[in-house]
Fold this protein.
Amino acid sequence: MAFPPVARQIDAAHQTALKESSSEQDRLVEDITAEITSGLLAEQKSISSKFFYDSLGSKLFDQICDLPEYYPYRTEMAMLPNIAKDLSELITQPIELIEFGAGSLTKIRILLQSVNMIRSVVPIDIAQDHLQCAADSLAADYPDINVSPIFADFTQPISLENQSDFSKLGFFPGSTIGNFNREFALQFLQRLRRSLGDSAMLLIGVDTKKSPQQLHQAYNDSAGVTAKFNRNILRHVNQITGSDFDPDAFEHYALYNPHLGRIEMHLVSQCEHVVHIRDQQISFHQGETIHTENSYKYRPDEFIHLARMAGWQFEKQWLAKDDMFSVFLLHADG
């Protein structure tokens, strides 16, 4: 359950496009409906995790971050002040800080409190209104730092050529790299290497492999918030496509797949029934699942190997207590 930027950003893009024009709205709805229908007609039914984040989904995610079982968010937040102090000693030349999937800029602020060599901040997020508000607030609080937001989907190629001449520090917190399968994670890290340049560094949060029991608890909380979050994707799909899913006909199921090193989230049909999407009928057998999410976990050596394949070299690693979470500092190879 590596939630925020990817899915939240793409949903924001959908909402922006829906405001453009009736023809654009119709085209977008048709494209989304076709994508969702295609996933549900596959042998293993699936709905992309990018559809988790309507307004209710975002609120439920915020609740998940506060759950005692869900460790990634609070663990990384607790690590960042010490990481920032270490960075203040490592970074001795002016830099430009670029955060991918920046959101509210909460974590950037922690770095700015200690890393005095940051001269420019470039937060990247597709949620334009939200990012602009956060960037304006940051600029007001740090008038000596240039804040230049970029409104874009960070999972797509982004040109950084028109930014400052300072060396760049990429920032990708939150274990969002776990949203991507291994092939796309490699491609994404390669793209960051190219766009950030030869003198760049990358600070990245990565969730660690741990006992199946610990992972099970994190994705199956006792309060049932994650279950509500998972089922809400069906309500959101109904809203987008006009389908007739009954969320209560599905049960949340999350498991750790040790062979693939990932958490998988599914929705399990509790009965045999049919769902209608436009002119399509989607049949469900009792016990059949919809795959809604993956969250890949990494041993340190696995992630370092992946980073090296993408053109990065290992610089430093921070591990939380009991190896619950890791943050890596990488530098460009060559």
